[in-house]
Amino acid sequence: xxxxxxxxxxxxxxxxxxxxxxxxxxxxxxxxxxxxxxxxxxxxxxxxxxxxxxxxxxxxxxxxxxxxxxxxxxxxxxxxxxxxxxxxxxxxxxxxxxxxxxxxxxxxxx
Amino acid sequence: xxxxxxxxxxxxxxxxxxxxxxxxxxxxxxxxxxxxxxxxxxxxxxxxxxxxxxxxxxxxxxxxxxxxxxxxxxxxxxxxxxxxxxxxxxxxxxxxxxxxxxxxxxxxxxxxxxxxxxxxxxxxxxxxxxxxxxxxxxxxxxxxxxxxxxxxxxxxxxxxxxxxxxxxxxxxxxxxxxxxxxxxxxxxxxxxxxxxxxxxxxxxxxxxxxxxxxxxxxxxxxxxxxxxxxxxxxxxxxxxxxxxxxxxxxxxxxxxxxxxxxxxxxxxxxxxxxxxxxxxxxxxxxxxxxxxxxxxxxxxxxxxxxxxxxxxxxxxxxxxxxxxxxxxxxxxxxxxxxxxxxxxxxxxxxxxxxxxxxxxxxxxxxxxxxx
Lengths: 110, 371
Prior knowledge:
The complex is a heterodimer of chains A (110) and B (371).
Chain A: H1 3-8, H2 28-43, E1 49-53, E2 56-60, E3 66-69, H3 75-83, H4 92-105
Antiparallel strand pairs in A: 1-2, 2-3
Chain B: E1 23-30, H1 36-44, E2 52-57, H2 64-72, E3 76-79, H3 89-104, E4 113-117, H4 125-133, H5 135-140, E5 141-151, H6 155-161, H7 163-170, E6 174-178, H8 185-198, E7 203-206, H9 216-219, H10 228-241, E8 257-263, E9 266-273, H11 279-293, E10 297-304, E11 313-318, E12 321-322, E13 326-327, E14 338-345, H12 349-369
Parallel strand pairs in B: 1-4, 1-5, 2-3, 2-4, 5-6, 6-7
Antiparallel strand pairs in B: 8-9, 9-14, 10-11, 10-14, 11-12, 11-13
């Protein structure tokens, strides 16, 4: 994304919407809050937290350092910068942690 | 468009409709000597493609392709930086923007399609990334089919020897085997089988010296309302043909990741999900995967069943680039499972599948807990 788009807030990322399909009823704001909630379930594995802020997001690292990002596509490069380590969804330890979190959400014993 | 050789070109009248709709960009690629330029000549001669501009790029000091194309069509602008790769994205963008500007000013005839012919050694993925990542280009242009020409005589050896050739075939939407009238039929059949396994989502055509070249090679793509459904059906047929969805058991959230085939370290495999996916979880997973492994994910094409959305959602991408999701009016075959074909290099399908499943389960749990 170019700087200009960032300033104007007009950038659109493919993760922003599944295409505005007929049948999609949730509001834009509710969608963003849901995205942040799901993202935080994953980002927690890396000690990160995402907050919905003024139609953008703030990503806060384990040391308290934070950055503003526009969409979920920008989460991971920034997450790696804030944590100083790769965020790899194919890392078995990461998958283990996600599976454990999903199990907890389902009420399974941890 | 005039060639960059100083020849005068009559100034056409400005076209009031020029620039009103995105221009479709086709990437035409194929290894050295595969017959890209011959195919291009034929395509440009078709009435349905008469409003087509061409960008080619030179390789090294010998612009063989350039010489051939110039004899066919004057609508050629040359990129001056040699092989199309990441380092010349600026050139590619500048050339496209300049061309569009000239059209809007009426300096060149209006065109609604642009074919970028790469060098034989080029990886088309950076071109795709340039098109979709740049806001200016994204506004004026949209990506159409990537067409890859494979030499019917020498194609197998080329695929064995050059990683570039494998990449070109793996990212294609259309594969054209050339020179099939000159090649041993058994060899063509073997090549055809190999390409179908390497890239099961691409339409595959045979071409001879005299065979007709259909305009649909470029015209029928995922953005075309008439062709969209058929395009997706072919992706799904690839999944069915290769038997990659043979699931057992009755779980309500079950996935498979089965090897379709492997070529060196390139594999095509399919992810499936029975239950609807949470869009946020899927987007998070795929963007995370591409951030770390985008260089290895050569192609992703899928039809998704998303929670809260009745229409099937089409997602497709090349390496780090994912296109804006599209919708189909209905499920092509009545099968409402999510099916995603992945063509990747060096990734373990089982691990990708496990990761996909974990994120989807997490998304389902979060959606269920939403107040």
